[in-house]
Amino acid sequence: MTPHYSSIPSIEVELSISARLLLESDASPKPDPLCVVFNHPFGRGWQEYARTEILRDVINPDFHNKIKIHYCFEEQQKLKFQMFDTDSCSHSLSKHTYLGKVQCTLADIVTVQAYTADIMLNGVKRGQLIITVMDVSHNREELELIFSASHLRKSGLSFSLPDPFLDILSSKKTLMKRTTYLSSTKNPVWPAISVPFRVLRNNRGEYKQLTLQCYHHCKDGQHQLLGETEIHARQLLEAPASFPLKKNHSSKAVIELTESKTKRVHSFLDYISSGTKLHFTFAIDFTDSNGDPHNSTSLHHIGRDPTQYELAMKAIGDVIQDYTGEMFSLLNFGARSAPISHELHVRGVEGVINAYRSCLDSIKLGQTGCLSPAIEHVARSAKKHLEWRGLDCNDYFVLIILTCREIADTNQVAKAITEASELPMSVLIVGIGPTSFTSATRLEEDIKKLSQNGRNAARDVVQYAQFNEILEKYDDMAGGFQLAKQLLADIPEQLVAYMKTKGILPKNKEILCPFSIKN
Q1: Rg of the chain in Å (alpha carbons)
Q2: Which family does the entry's similarity section mention (predicted)?
Q3: CATH code matching the domain that covers 141-264, chosen among 1.20.1050.40, 2.60.40.150, 3.60.60.20, 3.30.70.860
Q4: Where do the structural domains in the chain lie, given as residue ranges?
């Protein structure tokens, strides 16, 4: 059975709320302020989420009660902060004087050190709201582990040395971590790997049972098991330690934990709130596989209902625009004129939709749509930022490819993605229309790392979703919501993985060099 990677939980944040120069109500020279927080879960209306305490006779309140909320990058989390001057002990808000409100998204708040906005009532400013945020997620630590092995042997009559790698699996055979593979050695010392503390315990806080599996790496993906052993997660804290391998043809085969260190983990919010910028580019398929836009069956036909391209761009754009200053880049590929168009820069989701529609009026659909030029184009932008700023680079690029056909240049795409994995970028692929997209599915890195000519991708940078399959289960709005969740959920982890690999700390903090392993 193919193991699956562990899911990443949402981040819990704590909001601290203050206000300045609150205008008093008619009933009181100084207000007795209360702030009520509302949220807007998908598919529901506004609902009360939490309240601060009531303060007495202050126009510059600093509320002590913190508001805890789960932050999800892949969702647009709408919030509304309503300020009241309390007139009684009643819990009913209708019994108090309404001072005004601020409406925003949680993304607006977490992307700055301190969020400020005017409290408005009927077009009149009634004060200023100030919100600061803190990541209070538990287990923001990880274990940095160095494993080695000795006396490994391949099965059968083969006398060649194995190319070993090591997997750590949970009791349910969920793959938690995998080392790189090393060539031709029976005594490997693998580069350090990191395991979050949170995956080592169950919901009751007890350490889990784990399995260590050692494999001989095979290029066709059918890796040969060299041996395995059961351990208790707590043993990972007790280096040095030895674990004899079972099912190995050498009775001396053993896995050794040579080093175990606890390290604090910087979160996605640490980077975003300290100035890391996200750049998003949509690349749209303009091959003739879409059909003539003048024909109602075309995937590019502009009629009464939006196209799948428009639905996808709006659903994704609505979530990510708060991280981009509402600026997007737009590319098209597959048209007759050129393999890839000049890059357009537009403002807002409506700007993306309007630019897409304008392209349909002038572009002639082509026959061959290659994805690699779009990937290489964004990779060049990422590389330029690196060359310019080096370790001070705080930009991350995300390419969103929307295509209706199988990938025509699979080898070139594999090469481009392998090279992109060394850069601050991710690649998201959306399958539009009824095509099976088997070639795109193979590019996903959820199961194993992509390999091109024996060279492994440095990290997971690809995510794929087939929109047509989602729309078979949901209406347009819910389908867009599910698409955004599926595509965007891994971006925070991918960004942090890149920063960690390069030794880049959040801005205004010391830059660390990546550690090296001494043999």
Answers
A1: 26
A2: Belongs to the copine family.
A3: 2.60.40.150
A4: 11-135, 141-264, 276-502
